[in-house]
Known about the structure:
- It is a single chain.
- With 52 residues, the protein is mainly β.
- The protein has no helices and five strands.
- A hairpin with a 6-residue loop joins β3 and β4.
- The radius of gyration is 12 Å and the shape is elongated.
Amino acid sequence: MLAEYDAGGNLVSEYVYLGGRRTARRDASGTGAAYCYFADHLGTRGGADIVL
């Protein structure tokens, strides 16, 4: 997991990696929405929004 912080030290987003590829992101502000990332067999990237 990798975290992104702003200049004030506040958490902005968390990123989840699996097998060297980004698989998810969660925003810390607002709704705390989660985003899932995927790729097909050709490496074409896509994503989906998931609000928890």
